[in-house]
């Protein structure tokens, strides 16, 4: 478990909270897929051109 890794210092503090949040989000995405209400989102990574 993440809590044990956090306790012994192998994971940073707050890792358990993030893990719980991501697990809950994954459950919601699965449920949305089963109900066919999930709409994928487009994600673009852009970089501002360097000025000369």
From TrEMBL:
Originating organism: Aegilops tauschii subsp. strangulata (Goatgrass)
GO biological process, one term: methylation
Limits of the SAM-dependent methyltransferase Erg6/SMT-type domain: 1-49
Protein name listed in UniProt: SAM-dependent methyltransferase Erg6/SMT-type domain-containing protein
GO cellular component entries: endoplasmic reticulum
Record key words, sorted: Methyltransferase, S-adenosyl-L-methionine, Transferase
GO MF terms held by the record: sterol 24-C-methyltransferase activity
Family: Belongs to the class I-like SAM-binding methyltransferase superfamily. Erg6/SMT family.
């Amino acid at each position: 478990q993440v809590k044990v890794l956090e306790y012994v210092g192998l994971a940073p503090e707050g890792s358990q909270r993030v893990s719980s949040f991501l697990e809950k989000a994954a459950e919601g995405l699965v449920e949305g897929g089963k109900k066919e209400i999930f709409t994928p989102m487009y994600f673009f990574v852009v970089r501002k051109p360097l000025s000369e």
